[in-house]
Amino acid sequence: MSAPVRLTCHCGAVELAVILANGVEGARRCNCSFCRRRGAVTVTAAQGGVRIVKGADDLQRYQWGTRTAEHYFCKTCGIYTHHRRRSRDEFAVNLAAIDGVDPSKMGPFPWHPGRDMPL
Per the domain annotation, does 119 fall within a domain? Predict the structure, then answer.
């Protein structure tokens, strides 16, 4: 398994250590109503590969629809950090919040058809 990467929000209140399932391979966007508006590119974390290093109390959870997926963001600066996917028992993380990663120098990123998933 690969070494964890550091993921932070903008203000630094939240820090995660994340082991990526496939590195930045498989980075994608989602076209569901929430992700489309959020605009983040995500990558998959390995099973059990998301650890909150600091700022657990600064994370806010958002759920909608089936209330199965759990989307997390910093309640101070508003940056989306990660979410537990509703379709599988795995997490996705915000590619742009990983230290040293600049998604504007990558891509294009494929779109996951989240809007087509049953509610």
Answer: no
Residue-number span of the structural domain to which 75 is assigned: 5-110
Q: Provide the β-strand partners of residue 42.
A: 28, 94
pLDDT digits (tens, 9 = 90+) for 19-37: 999 888 889 998 888 888 8
Greatest Cα-to-Cα distance within the chain, rounded to the nearest angstrom: 36
Token reading at 84: 């537990």
CA–CA gap between residue 117 and residue 75 (Å, rounded): 28
Q: Does residue 85 carry a pLDDT above 90?
A: no
Instruction: Please report whether residue 95 resides in a domain.
Output: yes
Residue 15 is part of a domain; what is its CATH number? 2.170.150.70
Question: Could you read off the pLDDT of 49-65 as tens digits, one per residue?
Answer: 999 999 999 999 999 88
Give the count of domains, the chain. Answer: 1
Distance CA 52, CA 34 (A): 23
Which region holds residue 39: left if phi is over 0, alpha if psi is between -120 and 50, else beta?
A: left
Which of the four pLDDT bands, split at 50, 70 and 90, describes residue 117?
Answer: low
